[in-house]
Sequence to fold (249 residues):
Amino acid sequence: MAENKIRLQKFLSEAGVASRRKAEEMIRSGMVKVNGSVAEIGDSVDPQRDNVYVSGKKIKKESSLRYILLNKPRGYVTTTDDELGRKCVLELVKGVKERIYPVGRLDRVSEGALILTNDGEFANAMMHPSKHVPKTYRVTVRPDITAQQIDELSSGIMIEGRMTAPADVQLLQKEEGRAVVEIVLYEGRNRQIRRMCEALGLEVARLKRTAVGSVKLGMLRPGEWRDLTAQEVESLLTAAGIKRRGGSK
Fold:
């Protein structure tokens, strides 16, 4: 019945296949079939009646939801697979039976807190630009940073004709040839910190995400991961302005 149908990309996201945006790319590329026919953007499915396949594999909605915090090392890309043969973050979370995927991105040379999940609603809430879930970074810049540059980073930098949102910037450490600052972002534009610093003539020598919302990296070593607690999941949803009945799991 029509009232039981949902958008195909929403189904794929909730089934833990990929984020909605990535699911749309998969649909456009012809990887997705519904009841034997190649799917198109705009298609809807009944999860109870329709058969959905991605690259020939039948997709079923996950019965259990999983939320993982990974300390991503440098050198890994935040994709489920990579056509260039580079190391992917999923290689670090072997043994997880659910089809999890990264929430947002950290570029290959960046490191730190990365959340992976199979909960499409949660992932979309974390990544949606209107939700403004804060992300905290420890950034080492060269050769130095001035009070004026800190003010500019805080108030916003013009990137591709659009100002970045105000950020919280605090100087943590300063020595000859380098400085360490903490930057809290409330939006998630592509390579934002690196591009903000580049606009001010600063070289980013190291970039580490130390927290997503109130969830901190803590003592996790590079390459290690742990499951988020139910309270941590709820705190992230609250930060995104999302309330769900009956909890998150």
Residues 8 and 229 are 30 Å apart (CA to CA). The two ends are 28 Å apart (CA to CA). The first helix runs from residue 8 to 14. Confidence is low (pLDDT under 50) at residues 245-249.
